[in-house]
Amino acid sequence: MNQLFRLPQVGEADAIAEPSADLRVPFAQSGTFVCKFIIGEPSDQAVCCGAPVADGKSWCAYHRRIVFEPARPGRAR
Predict the structure, then answer these.
(1) What does pLDDT average to in each consecutive run of 10 residues of the chain (77 residues)?
(2) For residues 35 and 56, what is the distance between their CA atoms, to the nearest angstrom?
(3) CA 50, CA 30: separation in Å to the nearest integer?
(4) 24: closest CA among 54, 42, 51, 43?
(5) Confidence at residue 35, expressed as pLDDT on a 0 to 100 scale
(6) DSSP output for 13-54
């Protein structure tokens, strides 16, 4: 059985603001509960987003939208 998507719910997810650049930290110094999305090219001096992550995930809500592609209607598995 297919699930129905309500279009307003899909549009609301696009309204997530990008985290401030002030939160960025070197990846090697990033602790628990911060976004680990690497900004720029990965290297020995990689810098990650650093935004707080309360749900125990690796990425903040903004970067999860970049990393994961939302499920498309008709492709339920």
Answers:
(1) 44 72 90 90 87 88 84 67
(2) 10
(3) 7
(4) 51
(5) 93
(6) HTTPPPPPGGG-EEGGG--TTB--PEESS-STT-EE---B-T
Structure tokens given for 29: 């110094």
Spatial separation of the C-alpha atoms in residues 49 and 37, rounded to whole Å: 5
Q: How far lies 24's CA from each of 12, 16, 20, 30, 60, in Å?
A: 26, 18, 8, 9, 12
Structural domain that includes position 41: 22-67
Strands, sheet with 47-48, edge to edge from the N-terminal-most edge strand: 25-26, 47-48, 38-39
How many separate domains does the chain show? 1
Identify whether 50 is part of a domain.
Answer: yes
User: Two tokens at 28?
Assistant: 């090697």
Type of residue at 46: A
